[in-house]
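step=predict obj=Fucosyltransferase n=476
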Amino acid sequence: MNNPPTFAYRQRRIRQHEEMPRLRPSQVYRNGAIVAAGLLLIYILYSFLASDGPTSGGIRSAQPPKHSSKHLFLTIDKNRMDTRFEQLAPKRIFLWTPIFRSYDGPTVTDCPGLENRCIFDHDRSRLAAADAVLFHGPDLVDVGLPPPESRTRKQRYVFMTMEAPANTFVHYPAGLLQPNYFNWTMTPLFSSDVLFKYGGFWLTAKEAELKGFKMDSHALDPSSLTDKIPAVFALISNCATPSKREAALRALNRHFNVTIAGACATTPELKERCPKGTTCDEEISKYAFFFAGENTACTDYVSEKYWSRKELSTIPIVLRRADYANVNLPSQSVIALDDFESPAAMGKYLRDLVKDKAAYAEHFSWRRGGWTIAPWNTEGYRNGYCRLCERLWEEDQPEKVIPDVRGWYERESSCDDGSFVKNCLVFDFVCVCVWWLQCHENVIVALDEIASGGRTAGIAQIRQSSIDSEQRDDDE
């Protein structure tokens, strides 16, 4: 059993307690104030980092998207990057190649809701920190690929181009593109991992209304459709294209007037008609039609040839209608060469159209139908760098490797090698021959007359056939 403490022990404990320094009330208040000030400072610093808008030190915060509250992230000035912000930093997109020999241009500042979610960099000392590495196809031939050891598992290697395959892979040496190398594609194809197209997204009036978008106005003064030059205006600077569009224009010109301006024109005056650097919109609008055919006829490849002139008071003519299917063009807003069996049939349609003002005006009826282009890079209609940034933040994405990126792009693009135009020309030649024989049925009889010795009668029949043909042309 433990013995009870002695009287001397208790007295010693009492004296020790009395000798301990006592805390004065003023000290308690001061310590409490210090603790409160510390908590307030922590709160201010947190509010400073989590607030909207610019702040000192080159740091700007960004709110998470409405559909997610899992991420707190900061955009940090590239010159003030610090590893302590690694978990809070935006997605980093690294430019391994320049884009048409320049590293300037890529940005997300025009992406509503994404302005602070991604940054672009090309400092190779920071390659390992990148979330995505961007390879611009046309520039890759001059730069090559990075060494395998520089790659990390989290990175997405993205093959990017806005050019058609023929202009993307030009001058590529054998073996430049390694198999199973890229994770994502970023091209004008709607089947790409990241869509990177020209122009915007057409919506019907109903689609725009459901999205809550303000309707566009494409109103046109009816007087602008009168007194048009009855011809197709074509501004062409590439005179030998994969699509063979120049051959298509020559064939059409046999049946309907085509005016070619630019470098491919046949006269000095037409070569200078639209100087480089000018829009030429006023000149183009004088004509009933303008040629918007691409130098490469590929699925989804619709360049500024259409987009920059879609509002003009003239009808665009394109090569293959199917190439524009995903672009969702307003109905009757373009005329396609493959809408017709031959250039001859198309020429007849255009001749009839310029004579029938009501039918011509019908091709502009879409302007009254509420067709609208989705607001630039709004959610659901992101494009290019905005879509890339958005996709990098999407969660639960499966790993993906593209076995052959060149093969994929060429196959999905379904580019025409000129066969379409060649077939049109062959069909046109056959049609012309049949038409000529039908119109000149007397020629066969005349040739028989000449062969049998009735030369005078045969020549008379040929002359009469020519007169009959001219009269038929006048009637058309």
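step=describe
The two ends are 132 Å apart (CA to CA).
step=end
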